[in-house]
Amino acid sequence: MSDAAHGLPAAHDVVVIGGGGHVGLPLAIALADSGASVAVYDVDVATVDLINAAVLPFSEPGAQPKLDAAVAAGRLVATTDAAVVGTAESIVVVLGTPVDEHLNPDPRAIPAALGACTPYFRDGQLLVLRSTVYPGVTALVEKLISELGHDIDVAFCPERIAEHKAMEELYTLPQIVASRSPRGRARAAELFGRLTDTIVDLEPEEAELAKLFTNTWRYIKFATANQFFMMANDRGLDFERIRQGLTTGYPRAADMPGAGFAAGPCLFKDAMQLAAFNDNNFALGHAAMLVNEGLPLYLVTQMEKKYDLANMTVGILGMAFKADSDDARSSLSYKLRRVLDFRARDVLTTDPHVTTDSRLVPLETVLADSDLLVLATPHRAYRGIEPVVPVIDVWNFFGQGVAV
Ligand SMILES: NC(=O)c1ccc[n+]([C@@H]2O[C@H](COP(=O)([O-])OP(=O)(O)OC[C@H]3O[C@@H](n4cnc5c(N)ncnc54)[C@H](O)[C@@H]3O)[C@@H](O)[C@H]2O)c1
Questions:
Q1: Contact at 8 Å (CB) between 389 and 370?
Q2: Which of 43, 92, 120 best tests ligand 1's pocket when mutated (most atoms within 8 Å of CB)?
Q3: Model pTM?
Q4: Do 324 and 164 meet the contact criterion of CB atoms below 8 Å apart?
Q5: pLDDT tens string 276-328
Q6: Which of 151, 169, 179, 358 is deepest in the core (most CB within 10 A)?
């Protein structure tokens, strides 16, 4: 389909490649809200149709009113037609960068995905990489552009928002801007200056590592808390009581997180990207992976020690990877369910937001039919429920401690 067939204007300030995704779309909406004319290019037809109908394909608080306004004003359109890339002054790439089933990153994924767009690249454009990339991908893309013979400025400007905080953090977080060319740097800073006042300059290789270090740092912190939880629990002690005790009035430990499932599409895979980058020589990152990914199994083993699990129905509350979200990607609730499917008599699962799982049953059914519950995702929707069976509550959601 041609650009004109979509009724798109001939020129856009920004085209977001992968702009139907969890971070691409909030950015596209925010840029359109700042007055830019924005086009989303995405290969997912259903997502493109939803955006053009001003329907968010996933939940993101605060995004819907801005999406409504941007679509109504003609400042945001979506298309599956790669030709739209040729209409852009600035191109922002926010494609997914998953690791494969053997935990290998694919440094060629972004250059390969750009293949459909390269015929439409033209001199004078700014190309911003915003995905969390394997170190060296910016240089690969620079090489690709140079081989095409185009005069295009390339910048790497990592996205650092957390899902469900996008419409706040796009405006409040400093933006890291990295480009080898002063003009690329200035243009990228101007683009993100539409949203935020603070621009942080780094070299591309520094910025690539900055993003991976950020996510891995968080992942290791969660793993530390989870290992402390297991350590205390194995000695009959409640980690949450200890944590609250040690953080009280003590600023140097104030950032110690509570225990909980550290999951989702970013932290684990970015720790593994960093490990691969360091020739798989990353003891802390791999240890964090073992601890975080091992937590569901630890919980099931504890449940077996305490209960006649094989003859019980276990209810899992929450399948999304984080509270109040509908995003079930890489959620540890699924690992928990797989283990329980094998070791419990029956497993019931529920979630108020996830729509992508045919095994979900209503909360009332889970509460009525389970012998034991696991609070896997601390959705606010579970506030106020009063379970009549024991609850495994590693988040201390119900305030009764986390001991299992
Ligand atoms: N999700 C987060 O919270 C978050 C936060 C910061 C950074 N990031 C990074 O941002 C990047 C995107 O993550 P996401 O969660 O938004 O992923 P996503 O899967 O939600 O979005 C990617 C989008 O790209 C589209 N797409 C796939 N192949 C395409 C192609 N060849 N051409 C055009 N579109 C294509 C998909 O249809 C999808 O809409 C990743 O590198 C991720 O690590 C994510």
A1: yes
A2: 43
A3: 0.95
A4: yes
A5: 999 999 999 999 999 999 999 999 999 999 999 999 999 999 999 999 999 99
A6: 179
